[in-house]
Amino acid sequence: MKVALLNHGCAKNLVDSELMLGLLAEKGYEVTLNDEEADIVVINTCSFIHDAEKESVQSILQVAQSGKKVIVTGCLPQKYKTELKKAIPEISGMVGTSDIKEIVNVVEQVAHGKKNINKVSERPEYIYPETIERQQITVGPSSYIKIADGCNYHCGYCIIPQLRGEYHSRTIENIVEEAKSLLAKGVTELVLIAQDTTSYGIDLYGKNALPELLKKLNLLEGEFWIRIMYAYPSQMTDELMEAIATLDKVAKYIDLPLQHYDVEILKAMRRPAFNYDELIQKIRAKIPNVAIRTAFIVGYPGETDEQFNALYEFVKRTRFDKMGVFEYSREKNTTSYSMQEQIPAKIKRQRHKKLMTLQQKISKSVNEGYIGKTMKCLVEGFTDDGLILLRSEHDAPEIDGIVYASSERPVVPGDFENVLIENADEYDLFGRVV
Description:
Elements: E1 2-7, H1 11-26, E2 30-32, E3 40-45, H2 50-65, E4 69-74, H3 75-79, H4 83-87, E5 91-95, H5 103-111, E6 117-119, E7 142-146, E8 148-149, H6 160-164, E9 168-169, H7 172-184, E10 189-193, H8 202-205, H9 210-218, E11 225-228, H10 238-246, E12 253-255, H11 263-268, H12 276-286, E13 291-298, H13 305-318, E14 322-327, H14 345-368, E15 374-382, E16 388-392, E17 403-406, E18 416-424, E19 429-433
Parallel strand pairs: 1-2, 1-3, 3-4, 4-5, 5-6, 7-10, 10-11, 12-13, 13-14, 17-19
Antiparallel strand pairs: 8-9, 15-16, 15-18, 16-17, 18-19
Helix pairs in contact: 7-9, 9-10, 13-14
């Protein structure tokens, strides 16, 4: 029997999807990513913000209307255990965020005509299933490694701890073994992910063990990059900065979602409230040639014009290499949901546009600074008209820019090449392989 899987949401969800596919393949199921080919469709859902939920729900409805059997997994059933089945009675089965090992059992029952199968733990506790071999669905030289899951923070706008449970790290040994296996398959970029990578190891080893993990991964043979995503401001320790600066395989790239600048808003968000100017200066001083990506939320309840302007001025003087801006999304069961002074949608849109317009100018200026320089880049593939698609260490897969290049000799996806940068726009670089 053919089982299709549709994935929604973040890279962490993608790893869960690959683990479920691995389990199904192990049991002899033929798995596909084309729902039209399958009898049963597993939809791994996202519920981080309202728009993500909407996309997941539309996907469920679309597949259900085609008459196929639908199993819904991940964040949506975890968040709406009872409401989801009432709202969409066509759903045959549900699997929670920490119950992915149940997927084979649920598929088997659904295949035999059973309905209303609910495998959603009341209190999620995500423990990585180490014995499962992931069936990778990412195409290209990069692969994600989930080093932990769950979250011990309780930010005012975020529902993740309720959906994923407490923070659980994997052991260094297990992560290194998975990295070896991926490198043996030809992967040349390991992207480390978690809800917060910088808290890695505290629950297992009683200390922040990310620097130690990086050192062990850096010792593995071959030419490859190690990239860290989702860092937390208060966990950017001197030891971690030193590891990023000195380990040759670690990309000089820090993904550091700050969320805001104003101290009062940060306190209301339940985020670390300290001087972010000093933190950024320190990172740049300790890690030469570092690129910093960040993200901000505008329109958080109570955000005044003055507080937004403080954020705007911070962005203006700091000149982040990469930046995302999100309009505050009001989510039930978060502390910010019931806060007074909710900001009108129109003002949120205006603030979003103003900040992104500023960042586009900064980004273009930053990118123009690469013109005339030669950068080591990872070959990703080719455009239809023969240009080479590459990425520098300053660009994370799927979220940052691309380097477009020509070459007078053949190049191979997954290899590293030096590219002389000849032009730039707000997001991408253009050059030739040298």
